[in-house]
Design a protein that fits this description.
The protein is globular and about 65 Å long. The protein contains 18 helices and two strands. Helix content is about 70%, strand content about 0%.
Length: about 450
């Protein structure tokens, strides 16, 4: 009975967190709202994690977390030394506007909950108890994804009445659209991850409920992706638009890759490595299908816009018909600030370097890696690079921990999805955003699981 209560409470946490994100998207320009909902979500989640700790026989703490803690400490130190503002320290670390520690911690919390929800099924034997748990968890995920889809429909309805007549953009937009865009991306990322966890857990068992709802799950996901992209353009967030488009393509490509029975069997019965994924059959097929998915998506968007009579040039992504991609141009211009800002303090960095050199605190390089070097120096970049490198290796080790007697590895599909997704997030971060991009830190917490609780499981 305990695991069923844990399951229900875990998805209540997911629903509350999604509600908080959507409330702040629809309430754009109204400041941070529904903080009590976020607090309740985190509180309940932490209680569940503490209960899991007390009932676990083994607690694994990954080696990488030590480097991350050192990075966070150095990050905070540089803000205190270079900026000297407690408000800035709060804003960069724990504020809902983009605190990197806050969003990493929330991502980690949700990841732990999702892993523990899946744990009874990772020891799945074909018995009535396991099958019942699988069916109940499928229903719980169905309700969560449905509620999330309904909420994004509500957000669309709320924003649609505020659209301008000449542009596909809400009329009273201000600078807070970036926060709303990040929240939209995070909400979609969580939805996608829960859905993939469901798919991976239903690979080797007969679950009538999942089979009955399989296509509903898929089209709910497609609807969520489409509406999220539309909402991203309504609020003027090109970053969210590109991120959600890319995440969707990555997810669909992963699904198409495992349509091949031969590749699916290989994934589920072999220990994966970066070499096998990148240079092997999986990598070649993924690259080919990725191009196909991009082409199909492009044709689909053009076809739908034509049928609906919608002018794509009226969107911010297309520069409102000006023929220029303003967001791309401005980012390219800011690349010229890298050399002087990096030379200011190449070893230790300077969190206030853009303001000191240009008089404009927003004149930083819009690249995660380059801004990491300019603001935290080679020292800070080295700490984070070691953390990311170790985390990638630890993902493979974690997936190898559970193997059935028939050689089936139930975590491998989820591992493949996680690798592709977090890598795409890093690519977007490298190309377009500052080091405090909340989506990247949330994704690191979600996929680079620093802590894992395990009980002694009987494998049959």
């Amino acid at each position: 009975m305990t695991k069923y209560i844990y399951l229900v409470l875990s998805f209540i946490v997911f629903v509350l967190f999604d509600f908080y994100l959507k409330a702040n998207i629809s309430g754009l320009n109204e400041g941070s709202s529904c903080l009590s909902v976020l607090a309740i979500s985190i509180f309940v989640g932490c209680i569940l994690v503490v209960l899991q700790m007390t009932s676990s026989s083994t607690i694994f703490v990954k080696h990488s977390i030590g480097f991350l803690v050192c990075f966070f400490a150095y990050f905070a130190l540089r803000i205190v030394v270079d900026v000297g503002s407690i408000e800035q320290l709060k804003g960069y670390t724990v504020a809902t506007s983009g605190g990197i520690i806050l969003f990493y911690s929330i991502g980690l919390l949700l990841s732990i909950l999702l892993t523990q929800v899946a744990l009874p099924q990772l020891a799945l034997a074909d018995n009535s108890v396991s099958q019942r748990y699988l069916r109940i968890s499928t229903v719980a995920i169905f309700f969560y994804l449905t509620i999330s889809f309904i909420s994004v429909c509500y957000v669309y309805g709320e924003l649609a009445v505020r659209l301008k007549n000449d542009h596909f953009l809400i009329a009273d937009l201000d600078g807070t659209y970036q926060r709303a865009g990040n929240f939209l991306t995070i909400s979609f990322l969580v939805n996608m991850t829960v859905y993939m966890r469901l798919i991976s857990l239903n690979q080797q068992c007969h679950n009538g409920i999942y089979q009955s709802l399989e296509y509903i799950f898929f089209f709910t996901y497609i609807g969520n992706a489409a509406l999220s992209i539309v909402v991203a353009q309504m609020i003027g967030s090109n970053n969210a638009t590109v991120s959600i488009l890319g995440l969707s393509v990555t997810f669909l490509t992963t699904l198409f890759v495992i349509r091949s029975k031969k590749i699916k069997y290989y994934i589920n019965h072999h220990n994966l490595s970066i070499k096998k994924i990148v240079l092997g059959t999986i990598g070649r097929r993924f690259s080919f299908l990725l191009l196909i998915c991009i082409l199909l998506l492009f044709v689909f968007i053009l076809t739908i816009s034509k049928l609906l009579g919608f002018d794509l040039l009226s969107t911010r992504l297309m520069g409102f018909g000006s023929g220029e991609l303003s967001s791309v141009g401005s980012r390219l211009e800011l690349l010229g600030n890298f050399i002087p800002q990096f030379n200011d303090s190449p070893l230790l960095g300077n969190m206030n370097v853009s303001f000191e050199l240009t008089g404009n605190s927003g004149a930083y390089v819009h690249s995660f890696i380059l801004s990491l070097l300019t603001h935290l120096g080679i020292f800070g970049a080295t700490l984070l690079s070691i953390y990311i490198g170790l985390s990638y290796m630890e993902m493979f080790k974690s997936a190898r921990k559970v193997t059935f007697s028939n050689g089936f590895k139930p975590d491998n599909l989820y591992l493949l999805y996680s690798l592709m997704t977090i890598t795409f997030v890093f690519l977007i971060a490298t190309a377009a955003v500052f080091i405090t991009w909340s989506v990247a830190w949330f994704a690191m917490g979600l996929f680079f699981v620093a802590v894992r609780f395990e009980k002694k499981l009987k494998h049959e």
